[in-house]
Amino acid sequence: MLTTYILLLIFGFVFIYPVLFLILRSFMPRDDFFNPLVAFVPSVFVLDNFLLLLKKFSYGRALAFTVYLCGVCSALQVISCGLMGYGLSRYEFRLKKMFIALVGACFVIPSQVLMIPTYMQYSNYGLLGSTATFFLPAALAQGLRSPIFILIFFSFFNTIPKGLDEAAQIDGASPLVAFLRIVLPLSIPAVVLTVIFSTVWYWNETYLVQLYLGASAKTVISQIAAALGALGEDAIRNPMEVVMNVPIKMAAMFLMILPLIVFYMFLQRQFVESIERSGITGE
Predict the structure, then answer these.
(1) For residue 157, how many other CB atoms are within 10 A of its CB?
(2) Cβ distance 154 to 81 under 8 Å?
(3) Cα–Cα distance between 233 and 270 in angstroms, integer?
(4) Are 156 and 187 in contact (CB under 8 A)?
(5) What 3-state class would DSSP assign to 143?
């Protein structure tokens, strides 16, 4: 038992150390960075790096826009991918296995291959610069990494007895009502998993955001990148007043990942509890 805990501590430290290094360096003053006597823990914790960044952009506004974009897209992906997975799980039709294989193959296709035709299509429809370029694909199960979410729901729905759907339909419920009121509430682990991964992937997406939204892209990552660029230009113009150093960049990365850490810590407990409560097996 002791050996197990020691190994867990060692492996846990390997994963936690980069995060601790990031957090401690983000609160480090500029003088400590150039001081060879300060190795890991700063001599004094300061907020200068964060204040310098926040002068260049509104973090609250960028955070609100990013949460709005990721939240709507992840919710739409839960509904659309859940419906696709429900249809594949509950209905039999010709070439069903080939269709499932094609869904898996779509996940392998690099997104860069579809950028130019998708951009031209959005341009013809007049959607460039609008969040509809992200909402519409998510609502049609064509969002970021949607094929993997379809397969996740498909696999999870296969573990839920079809008798529950049949009982609901005998009581007069339509297939859509049975999906929304019976099957989906029993699929909380798949829903939480989809929400977590969808949010993280949309949060970290930068190229498509700049490509489709352009100047209206006010996400956290794009705004922080712009703020670092502005600070770099200020450092070139006024090298004696502004210094671009590692602690400032660490503070920028900490602002990027902080909401995701809080989001994951909140949903991790619910995800584990939902797995413990779901004891239904397939027929």
Answers:
(1) 24
(2) no
(3) 45
(4) yes
(5) coil
Is residue 122 within 8 A of residue 193, CB to CB? The reply is: no
Q: Do residues 193 and 272 make contact, with C-beta atoms less than 8 angstroms apart?
A: no
Q: How many helices (H) and strands (E) does the chain have?
A: 14, 0
Q: Locate tokens 């113009």: which residue?
A: 237
Cα(197)–Cα(246) distance, integer angstroms: 29
| Residue 262 one-letter amino acid | V
- Taking phi over 0 as left and psi of -120 to 50 as alpha, with beta for the rest, 95 belongs to left
What is the C-alpha separation between 49 and 58, in angstroms, rounded? Answer: 15
Look over the chain and give the mean of its residue pLDDT values, rounded to a whole number.
83
- Give the mean model confidence (pLDDT) for residues 114-134: 88
Alpha-carbon distance of 283 to 273, in angstroms, equals: 24
User: What does the pLDDT read at residue 138?
Assistant: 92
Distance of CA 256 to the CA centre of its chain: 12
Q: Which DSSP letter does residue 186 get? A: G
What per-residue confidence (pLDDT) applies to 22?
87
* pLDDT grade for 235, boundaries at 50, 70 and 90: low
How far is CA 7 from its chain centroid?
A: 30
CB-facing half-sphere around the CA of 2: CA atoms within 13 A: 0
Backbone angles phi, psi at 56, to 5 degrees: -95, -15
Return the pLDDT at 64. Answer: 93
Domains detected in the chain: 1-46 (no CATH), 56-277 (1.10.3720.10)
pLDDT tens digits, 27-44: 888 777 777 777 778 888
Taking a C-beta distance cutoff of 8 angstroms, is the pair 221, 204 a contact?
Answer: yes
